């Protein structure tokens, strides 16, 4: 031991020497000797995992109580992140074993923020990983309720359950479909999918809690928020969905209420209940209710005019139309056609006829970035001809050009645009009863996608 009474292994961890730690463990040093190992640097963990027998070596340290230092700006290469996710999968396989459970959960709680993802496509979340904390909803969507939970003992999460009025087979099918899309997404401007878990008769989809709530509530609460930056982040997320993975994803229900803002002011697209992979030759056999779902304030006119399932299919172009509406929401803090109140019939007719919302001309809105050029971009998004609408990449280019030409506004965001590693409503009916989602069901959904 050194003068501070630390063991050689504790010193190796403190000095981030993965080579020394590997050597000592290979020589049979007891990792439990001398008390807790303390917090390791992210680089130490990555180097250890990438070395010989990295996973088995790191597991010994986990059982001995090692944790990981918090490094918010630590950059991890894709290969290293993949190796870390592989290690988390191995830890989760032995998570339920009583002798190692507490040590594993404690380690994962410090490791999870570092990698920003949680691999759960193989096994559902165990009760020691996630707990439902409140029986009152923290928010509501068109077909779902959101509850507050705790993940790995210390991370606040949102737990989404489908509504009770839906039939059991409908809720199960919709959850499988949504998770089949959501679990494959990985982008800084898309809300991460942590996993799913069943408490009693109810199944929940779990995601990180977004402290700043949805985008519309955020811009209303923060008049000085950088609206152009938020628009660019939303467009980045949408571009990823449309072009960032091998099969384009149609979001299908893009609006500010389905975009959440992190504690650092980063926009993240959420709610994939109406999403699908676009490369299908024929319309999928979804219910008529699924095809008709949506609100005309955000829907493209071709969806309202559809006379067949093929014509009613959502596309990348209908997503772009909705993105233009989101831009209007972010600049104004109002839903499209807000001046028509809840008169859905009037809104339907205006959109059906290809008419635009009224242009806001007050100085405050213009100062936030809604100038002539931005209004023209939004009008292109709302073109009656889908082929005339810009791509998400084109929106990004124009918005980033506008960002370069203006000073930064007061914003929570630590970054400008690009990669980065809550309303209260009392529940009036019990959460949805859903049969336990089976791992093979999720794999079957993924196989169909491939």
UniProtKB/TrEMBL annotation:
<dbReference type="GO" id="GO:0005524">
    <property type="term" value="F:ATP binding"/>
</dbReference>
<dbReference type="Pfam" id="PF07714">
    <property type="entry name" value="PK_Tyr_Ser-Thr"/>
</dbReference>
<feature type="domain" description="Protein kinase">
    <location>
        <begin position="132"/>
        <end position="403"/>
    </location>
</feature>
<dbReference type="InterPro" id="IPR051681">
    <property type="entry name" value="Ser/Thr_Kinases-Pseudokinases"/>
</dbReference>
<dbReference type="InterPro" id="IPR000719">
    <property type="entry name" value="Prot_kinase_dom"/>
</dbReference>
<feature type="region of interest" description="Disordered">
    <location>
        <begin position="403"/>
        <end position="450"/>
    </location>
</feature>
<dbReference type="InterPro" id="IPR008271">
    <property type="entry name" value="Ser/Thr_kinase_AS"/>
</dbReference>
<dbReference type="GO" id="GO:0004674">
    <property type="term" value="F:protein serine/threonine kinase activity"/>
</dbReference>
<feature type="compositionally biased region" description="Basic and acidic residues">
    <location>
        <begin position="435"/>
        <end position="450"/>
    </location>
</feature>
<dbReference type="InterPro" id="IPR011009">
    <property type="entry name" value="Kinase-like_dom_sf"/>
</dbReference>
<protein>
    <recommendedName>
        <fullName>Protein kinase domain-containing protein</fullName>
    </recommendedName>
</protein>
<dbReference type="InterPro" id="IPR001245">
    <property type="entry name" value="Ser-Thr/Tyr_kinase_cat_dom"/>
</dbReference>
């Amino acid at each position: 031991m050194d003068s501070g009474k630390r063991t050689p292994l504790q010193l190796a961890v403190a000095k981030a020497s993965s080579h020394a730690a590997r050597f000592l463990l290979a020589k049979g040093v007891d990792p439990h000797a001398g008390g807790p190992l303390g917090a390791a640097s992210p680089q130490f963990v990555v180097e250890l995992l990438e070395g010989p027998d990295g996973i088995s070596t790191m597991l010994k340290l986990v059982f001995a109580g090692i944790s990981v230092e918090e490094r918010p700006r630590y950059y991890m290469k894709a290969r290293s992140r993949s190796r870390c996710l592989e290690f988390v999968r191995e830890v989760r396989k032995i998570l339920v074993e009583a002798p190692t459970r507490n040590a594993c959960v404690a380690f994962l709680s410090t490791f999870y923020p570092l990698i920003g993802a949680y691999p759960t496509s193989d096994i559902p979340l165990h009760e020691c990983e996630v707990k439902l904390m409140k029986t009152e909803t923290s928010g509501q969507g068109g077909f779902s309720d959101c509850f507050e939970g705790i993940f790995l003992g210390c991370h606040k999460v949102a737990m989404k359950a489908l509504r009770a009025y839906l039939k059991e087979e409908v809720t199960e099918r919709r959850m499988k479909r949504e998770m089949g899309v959501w679990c494959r997404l990985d982008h800084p401007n898309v809300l991460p999918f942590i996993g799913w878990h069943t408490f009693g008769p109810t199944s929940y989809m779990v995601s990180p809690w977004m402290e700043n709530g949805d985008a519309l509530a955020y811009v209303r609460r923060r008049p000085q928020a950088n609206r152009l930056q938020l628009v660019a982040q939303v467009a980045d997320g949408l571009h990823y969905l449309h072009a960032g993975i091998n099969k384009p994803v149609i979001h299908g229900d893009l609006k500010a209420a389905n975009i959440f803002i992190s504690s650092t002011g980063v926009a993240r697209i959420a709610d994939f209940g109406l999403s699908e992979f676009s490369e299908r030759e024929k319309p999928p056999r979804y219910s008529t209710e699924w095809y008709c779902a949506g609100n005309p304030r955000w829907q493209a006119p071709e969806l309202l005019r559809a006379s067949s399932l093929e014509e009613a299919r959502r596309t990348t172009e209908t997503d772009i139309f909705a993105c233009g509406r989101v831009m209007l929401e972010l600049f104004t803090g109002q839903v499209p056609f807000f001046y028509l109140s809840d008169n859905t019939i009037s809104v339907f007719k205006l959109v059906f006829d290809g008419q635009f919302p009224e242009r806001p001309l007050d100085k405050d809105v213009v100062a936030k970035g809604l100038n002539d050029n931005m209004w023209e971009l939004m009008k292109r998004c709302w073109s009656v001809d889908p082929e005339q609408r810009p791509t998400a990449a084109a929106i990004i280019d124009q918005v980033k050009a506008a960002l370069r030409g203006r000073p930064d506004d007061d914003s929570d965001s630590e970054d400008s645009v690009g990669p980065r590693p809550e309303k209260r409503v009392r529940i009036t009916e019990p959460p949805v009863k859903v049969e336990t989602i089976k791992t093979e069901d999720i794999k079957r959904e993924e196989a169909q996608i491939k």
